[in-house]
User: What shape does this take?
Amino acid sequence: MANIIETARAEHAYDKYVKGLESVAGLVETLSGPGPFTIFVPTDAAFDRLSADQQATLFADPDKLARVLKYHIVPGYYTADDLLDRLFLKTLEGQRLRVWSDVSEVPLGEEDIATGGDALSYISSDTVTTAVRESIKINGGHVLQANVIADNGIMHVIDKVLIPQFTML
Assistant: This one.
């Protein structure tokens, strides 16, 4: 298996985030170390939702870029199930991320299943668990893909670039 940086590079869905990591001194080395790390990786589409000026400002200022990228990284190993038991996670940047689930907004479906006992219980349990995992939000950004596992950590793909408080783009 690959480390968390190699895993992120191989996916090609978050090249902008990886490019940012590679341009900040020490981050690739840190994330190639033993860890463990949990990274909330924004997709390229999440970066594209920022205006062209905001993206240019972010990538032109190494200190600001480092703060934003470190705000996506949490020391420790947190699976999607672990996230459901947390309210806040302290980032490498120093501030905390807010974690919550909006499961009440996720439709569970209304299919009738004609099976007996244990099978129905398993299917119902699995449906609820999947819906809860898909409802996890990090500072308002939805987790699109949870539990991308690497040797030294875990990644969760999100649909939002997380900006620390008091950071203007």
Observations:
- The chain is about 40% helix and 20% strand.
- The chain has one domain: 4-158.
